[in-house]
Amino acid sequence: KLHAYAWGGAGNEAPGGSGTAGHNTIDRFSFANEGSWAGHGTLDYGRMNSCDMGTQTETDGYFPGGRVNSTYHTAIDKISFASSGTGTDIGDLTVGETAGSGSTSTTGNVYIMHGNSSGSGHTTHIQKFNTTGSFVCSTISGLTLSKRSGAACHN
Q1: Do 112 and 64 meet the contact criterion of CB atoms below 8 Å apart?
Q2: Among 77, 86, 138, 155, which residue carries the largest CB count within 10 Å?
Q3: d(CA 116, CA 120)
Q4: What is the distance, to the nearest Å, from the Cα of residue 37 to the centroid of all Cα atoms in its chain?
Q5: 131 vs 54: CA distance, rounded Å
């Protein structure tokens, strides 16, 4: 792994503030140089509360969902790690979601799980799309408990 990427987040509030504006910036940090963060590009739109829902393949990053004020977004943005630029909207989640987590399988399937959705609060569903195909998202099996702001990993 060569770099860390950070995106979105709440607006320019003071420490401890709640901010409602979402940022659309993508920043990159080099592990080799341990230098400062540098601009890498922008997302299709500003978003906050998308926390750990981002995931990646070897060549691209995927940033699904997020929220701005009370609007829960469904867009999935894709960026290339090889070059700076604007994220491309490649598809939509089946449900607008925030505060979930994402994981990618070796076959290119992205799984977004245990988030928070407009009107339904904490969720039990798992949303899935494939990075090598049409990016059509579907909802698959549910989790055993309704939750949000969890973490995910894969082996």
Answers
A1: yes
A2: 77
A3: 7
A4: 19
A5: 13
For residue 85 the two structure tokens come to 């630029």
Nearest to 69 by CA among 141, 33, 120, 18: 18
The residue type of 78 is K
Return the bridge partners of 4, or none: 29
Cα–Cα dist 85/87, whole Å: 7
For residue 77, the cross-strand partners are 63, 89
26-60 core/surface letters (b: 16 or more CB in 10 A; e: else): bbbbeeeeeeeeeebbbbbebbbbbbbbbbbeeeb
Q: How far is CA 29 from CA 8, 33, 35, 62, 92, in A?
A: 15, 9, 7, 17, 28
HSE, side-chain direction, 13 A CA sphere, residue 142: 8
Angle at 50 between CA 56 and CA 27, to 5 degrees: 60
Q: Are 3 and 37 in contact (CB under 8 A)?
A: no
Encode pLDDT of 109-124 as tens digits: 888 776 767 666 676 6
pLDDT in tens, 63-89: 888 877 778 888 888 889 888 888 888
- Please check whether residue 27 is in contact with residue 3, taking contact to mean a CB–CB distance below 8 angstroms: no
pTM (predicted TM-score): 0.77
